[in-house]
User: Fold this.
Amino acid sequence: MKKLFLIVLIPAVCLAAPIQLIDGFAPLSNDVLLISDQTDEVSNPPNYDEYYEDAIDDISGQPYSYDKLVHSTEITTTELNSYNMVVWYTGVSAPFASNESKGHAALTLDEEDEVVNWLNNTPAGEVRGLWLSGRFIAFNCIADIGTEGQIYSELFSGYLGLDYPHDNFPSPITVTSDWTGGSGAAWAPMWGYAKDIYWLDDNLPDMLGSTGSAWDALMWTDTDNTDHHASMIANVGTSANGGLWKVVLSSLPLECMGSDYERSQTMNDILSWFGSTSAIEEITWGQIKAQF
Assistant:
């Protein structure tokens, strides 16, 4: 049992500064639920709350407020329904495969169902966004070390569009601060911008892959500029009620990005995308040219 306390594609061009999002339809609430879930199956876990809290506080104009829920019992739609944006982070917790005895610690199967229900019941005219951030979330929820395959999950296979690379089993990666979160798709939420890395603590993070309508938002890129699958994927879809849901899965967590600025920029880019009624933000040629 868990605990609860308290598309319009654009050309790939080199830009001098981050692309500005076109103003979208604001969410009904700018409140964000931070779910701090960092103690599952790990002794003396480091606490990375401040990285997520500061990343929101440091956004220019402070457009977002947040509530933090420290995880101790299973999360249900009772907690989720009051929010349109949820950031669920796990630190270095749950470094075990899904089919091991400590599998499904990051998100239990019941919690996966609750999250799916929350997304699929997004009301018409509203947007709900979920960001799962942690080094081993996918491994803990869908990896089968016996078959070296991916166990089906409606949340991970369907909503997140995760295609878990087989390389995670025979050839896991060891990341250093000389690596980067390399350029992914040239549209929201990361806009094709790479991220510096300041690597902390445990290693062998998940390599991710996308399938269906999902896309690779960031890559794992080593010191030789070689990509090793994705470090962040994203997807979007329509709920049963006609609302819009948006999801992000990142195995390059916020605490391992290179600077306060990059962490806040990443938080802002993701929350801004969650707050727009466009599936993938459009950008005009005028906006592109203005960056030079």
Notes: The helical segments are 49-57, 77-80, 109-120, 137-142, 154-159, 260-274, 285-289.
